[in-house]
């Protein structure tokens, strides 16, 4: 099983990258393609740019990474209740290559924030976007509140949250097991 994983943040000190790395460390028997969305910085999408210049090579490269994966794990940063602009731009370009670019892809969606809602707003947006618009199969999702209080030195310190994340990882991994 091959998993494409990325945090939806372009911050060097992203707490979503920390949560993602923790999660990836708990997976078993998988090939992981961990990417940094900073490596896919492109011009802001517009239909005019697409018509005049075609698709940026980086958009094509990202689309190929999605195609090569069996599933995706995405830890979403919340910017004003939505995706970060960096991630949204990548999604805009890739969705123009193939509107249903996540068809037959299984997803584990995570979000975290320093506050009590744990990125709940972006999770609501992501559930609609990835599940309906991009045609992915969301196997599991979880928000992670009060990141700075519940995550220290690369580990989840809150047992309830630790168990929740472990459960979501197990559900995701088991979804690839053929009965």
TrEMBL record:
Origin: domain of life: Bacteria
Domain NADPH-dependent FMN reductase-like per the UniProt entry, residue ranges: 1-132
GO terms, molecular function: FMN binding; oxidoreductase activity
GO cellular component: cytosol
Pfam families, sorted: FMN_red
UniProt xrefs under InterPro entries: Flavoprotein-like_sf, FMN_Rdtase-like_dom, NAD(P)H-dep_reductase
Signal peptide bounds: none
Protein name, UniProt field: FMN reductase
The organism of origin for this protein: Chishuiella changwenlii
């Amino acid at each position: 099983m091959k998993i494409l994983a990325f945090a939806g943040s372009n911050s060097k000190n992203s707490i979503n990258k920390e949560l993602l790395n923790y999660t990836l460390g708990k997976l078993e028997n998988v090939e992981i393609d961990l990417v940094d969305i900073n490596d896919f910085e492109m011009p802001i999408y517009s239909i005019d740019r697409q018509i005049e210049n075609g698709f940026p090579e980086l958009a094509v490269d990202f689309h190929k990474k999605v195609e090569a994966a069996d599933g995706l794990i995405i830890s979403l940063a919340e910017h004003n209740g939505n995706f970060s602009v960096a991630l949204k731009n990548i999604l805009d370009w890739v969705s123009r290559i193939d509107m249903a670019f996540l068809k037959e892809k299984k997803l584990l969606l995570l979000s975290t924030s320093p506050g009590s809602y744990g990125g709940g707003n972006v999770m609501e947006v992501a559930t609609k976007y990835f599940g309906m618009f991009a045609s992915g199969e969301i196997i599991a999702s979880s928000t992670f509140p009060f990141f700075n209080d519940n995550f220290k030195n690369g580990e989840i310190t809150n047992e309830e949250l630790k168990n929740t994340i472990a459960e979501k990882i197990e559900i995701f991994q088991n979804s690839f097991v053929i009965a």
